[in-house]
Automatic annotation (TrEMBL):
PROSITE patterns: HTH_TETR_2 (PS50977). Keywords: DNA-binding. Gene3D superfamilies: Tetracycline Repressor, domain 2. The keyword DNA-binding applies. It comes from Mixta hanseatica. Residues 11-71 form the HTH tetR-type domain. It holds the Pfam family TetR_N. The keyword Transcription regulation does not apply. Residues 34-53 bind DNA. SUPFAM superfamilies: Homeodomain-like. This is TetR/AcrR family transcriptional regulator.
């Protein structure tokens, strides 16, 4: 088999496993999802899973990275309808918090992700969100929209507030009731940065 075709097949298998895991983790949760059922559903073996991800936890990390990256992209798209600058940055944070009501996001990223992968602030996908927020904050400070504060601190706290609000909403008994409260406080806290 040619090297190019082999690499193509490996990528195809990886994508199949991520898609199957995403479905299983969303429906059953990480702990209850069977690796044998998951691999069989796409015609692969546990060996393919271990080769690509090391273990079930590695597969969860790949699924979380995919879903979390999609969340960030969706938040950017939603926020793109807001006026550029502060309104857009705030809208992006609010959009991220609102995604805590999405069943797949709730289960995979906000509940199982932290439970099995640890602190989300260390995830590569969260670091990409931080970098984007950091750039936006630096620009807003330079344009005298925000107070002249430490850029990294402001970006980290804005990201952390949105993430923790989403985690709180996702874990709530009645997330629909907690959501507007989380958004209200997020906006009040964020507004403290404005001049």
């Amino acid at each position: 088999m040619a090297v190019g075709r082999r690499a193509e097949m490996m990528e195809e298998n990886r994508n199949k496993l991520i898609a199957a895991a995403r479905k299983a983790f969303a429906e059953k949760g990480f702990a209850a999802a069977s690796m044998d059922d998951l691999t069989a559903s796409v015609g692969l073996t546990r060996g393919a899973l271990y080769h690509n991800f090391g273990d079930k936890r590695g597969l969860l990390a790949a699924v979380v990275a995919q879903v979390d990256s999609e969340m960030a992209q969706r938040a950017k798209e939603i926020a793109s309808t807001a006026e550029a600058g502060w309104d857009r940055l705030l809208a992006e944070g609010i959009a991220y918090i609102k995604m805590a009501l999405d069943a797949e996001v709730q289960r995979i990223v906000l509940l199982d992700g932290p439970a099995f992968l640890g602190d989300p602030s260390g995830w590569p996908s969260q670091n990409a969100c931080f970098d984007a927020t950091r750039s936006a904050v630096a620009e807003l400070i330079a344009r005298d929209v925000l107070r002249p504060v430490e850029v990294d601190a402001a970006a980290r706290l804005l990201n952390g507030a949105a993430l923790n609000a989403a985690l709180w909403v996702a874990a709530a008994q009645e997330p629909e009731i907690k959501l507007p409260k989380a958004i209200e406080v997020f906006v009040l806290m964020a507004e403290g940065l404005r001049l």
